Amino acid sequence: xxxxxxxxxxxxxxxxxxxxxxxxxxxxxxxxxxxxxxxxxxxxxxxxxxxxxxxxxxxxxxxxxxxxxxxxxxxxxxxxxxxxxxxxxxxxxxxxxxxxxxxxxxxxxxxxxxxxxxxxxxxxxxxxxxxxxxxxxxxxxxxxxxxxxxxxxxxxxxxxxxxxxxxxxxxxxxxxxxxxxxxxxxxxxxxxxxxxxxxxxxxxxxxxxxxxxxxxxxxxxxxxxxxxxxxxxxxxxxxxxxxxxxxxxxxxxxxxxxxxxxxxxxxxxxxxxxxxxxxxxxxxxxxxxxxxxxxxxxxxxxxxxxxxxxxxxxxxxxxxxxxxxxxxxxxxxxxxxxxxxxxxxxxxxxxxxxxxxxxxxxxxxxxxxxxxxxxxxxxxxxxxxxxxxxx
Length: 391
Ligand SMILES: *Cc1c(COP(=O)(O)O)cnc(C)c1O
Hints:
Structural class: alpha/beta
CATH topology of the largest domain: Aspartate Aminotransferase, domain 2
Low-confidence stretches: none
Bound molecules: pyridoxal-5'-phosphate
Number of domains: 2
């Protein structure tokens, strides 16, 4: 199974069948487990085997299938699934950090990630934010005592691509762990750990579910880190994924590569069509040669991804564009089968200060697009209708 290609792993890895030989992944919707004798219970609590269970806050067969499948796809030894992407973000940091530690993070982060990092400051962790694309800034920020660096490999919403290998080299030289939020890049063809990440996290809510149904998250890394540090802490903190949600994620993974490739191909078509169109001030797509991080994207991503951003200049123009869309749904999710358009400045990033918005490039005219799997012709026609509405 280890030598299979990603598409095969997405369908088959991690499956374990009960005595009934069910075709589909079994949904073990159970809080706990029973033991035939008191002695058996004692033995289970003394040493829980790799496919034995005590309580679903600790582990569950359906959740385990999801963990093993995504670990196989990512190419890591193990994974620990949690209730949401944010449970993964704080769940990867809590077990590793103590008062007095130092963390360096890229400043272009998902809003809730910035809030979580701020909470760690209350517990005596020092946090330094840097421009993630500026390698000298990482070099200047890390120091002995830097426990971890944290960044999104492709940032939200401006799609900055951070050079995982280069940042990992700087971090490792200082003895820091490298934690990558790889949600935008997706696990399809991801090489974050091959490039030096020690721990990779995903909001499974996005491309892995792919149908906007459930929340979920996952932390991936070596068995030592996952079972030695992450699990012993997180199984007591309670942000466990529901077995039902883990089951939805397993079924979502079956079509993940097909969806990501279809969406990325259409996103690339949109970017190419709009690059140089004078109705659009700026097209941000890592797959475009004009993107400032195109060379890094080519090294570390398979294709340009499913997300792009357009700068239409003003809020009025952005709203006119958004309100004319018919195939794109206005929402704040991403990675869905449905195409989704978002106005970050007034929704996902509304609480970011004006100064920070300016630094991060989140202007009033910025529109973020998550490209779905509808017919490319219909998606492109929808974009054209949006632009036509600009007058
Ligand atoms: C959505 C997202 C998260 C948070 O995930 P939830 O499942 O909503 O908790 C974290 N990081 C990135 C990059 C995201 O896009």
